[in-house]
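Pilot study result, target chain (247 residues):
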Amino acid sequence: MPRDRVPTGCRPAVVRRARWLVVAVTVLGLSAFLAPEAVAAPPIPGSPLDAYRAHVPYDVGAHKIARLAALIAYVLMVSTVVLGVMLRLRFMQRAVNRATFYGAHMTLALSAMIFGGIHGLTFLYQPIWRIGWTQLALPFSGGLQRIPVGLGILGTELAIAVACSVWLQNRLGYHRWLRVHQFAYVSFAMIWLHVFLVHPEPRHLNLVAVSVATGAGTVLVAFLIRVFPSRSRLRRRAFPTEAGAAR
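Predicted structure:
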């Protein structure tokens, strides 16, 4: 059967418009993807370019110290959480003494807080950030990037409170203290949000972004192992005498 023919007069016009539409969308897409710097985007708050445009001095040495201290604190914090999960679930308890695990856990936690404090103190010497002692002590109290910086300060202070709760363990009781100690996961989540939001570097594919994502994934796996214990551990909880006799 003969096919219905479309009037030839309207076909070239429709094809021409479709071609121009495809070309326009392609050009706009390539321009947005390949040349994002062509758009006059504002500089990152607190960056050297921001300081240059604001005619404010910028200390490159303080910036390098802050960046290095932040990376070290992040690695130590991830190690602290993972070692705490291992200590709680009694992993490798036959190979390593529990007191050694506990001492390493406390040392890593203290070192992470020290380097985190160094990271925060360096911003007192960057005029562009407009951060003083009040802004360092009170989260979300002002300055540039108020929410990301406030998350970092709040997470650090929560980590300090969790660490100081060790001295109240006898008064609170072990189970109540353990509930307080579990706020360390909340502290890590706040600090991770601070790292992810305060600078675009962790949001691009580079070594720092891979390291930050790897640390967050490691803590997430440790948290899931802590929340959902294995069947053997559940069996030891249900039958503690049989587990002890098997050893």
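One observation from the pilot: The radius of gyration is 27 Å. A full batch analysis is planned for the follow-on phase.
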